Amino acid sequence: MHVIESIGPLLGIAAFLGLAVLAFLLFQQSRDVRSLREWAGRAPERAQEAAEAVQAASEASRADPAGTERPPERSPTIGERLRGAFGRATARVGSWLRAVDRRLPVDGRYLLAVLAVGVAVAAVATSGFGLVGGDGGSRGHKRGSAKPTVAVLNGTSVTGLADTVDKKVIEPAGYKTGKITNAGSSFANTVVMYVPGDRALAKELSRAIKPKLGETPVQEMTPDVKGRAGGAPLALALGLDDSGFGGA
Q1: Domain 149-243 belongs to what topology?
Q2: How far apart are CA 75 and CA 79, in angstroms?
């Protein structure tokens, strides 16, 4: 089960990348068709521009015959120079953007739209798969996923107490059933134990079982309890104060 849960995020990302590649190929085809249509449609305009340029050169040569004395040219002011430099820079940037847009395999607007959708989908997917968010250090549980596994250890001499608490307290609270066994030593009071980094999860479990078992303290797992918990991030060690729970 752990392997399936760990592979789930990778499969989701692989599926998203596959859809992105497919969309890229479709947009590339539409971009090629659009470029061809634009090139064909601008043929009359290019011919008109060339004709206008030839006509302007001819008129200029007639208006300024050779040998005509021209007035001395006035040096441009600083403001005019700045405006000219700004205009040239703006023209260069616009020309560069148009060149980049022509070199792109798809329309730049399509790329921006795909990128925005991809970011949104990735954010939703990673949150749903539990790749981001959640309590730091929690290895058995991520925010938004199912509740973690809880091992129930009987720290009393009452036979069947751990099984009774699991069925009447742990399962109804929505937690996964972990290992149910003896604690190996006696506990005077019931306590919720956690692996390092999962204190927040232990506090949640303590609040969940409070209506049936009362106020339950939390503490980090001891090596002996950790060895008996079977890898569960949380363990409920039952003490003598709850030895009479459920008529066990």
Answers
A1: Alpha-Beta Plaits (3.30.70)
A2: 12
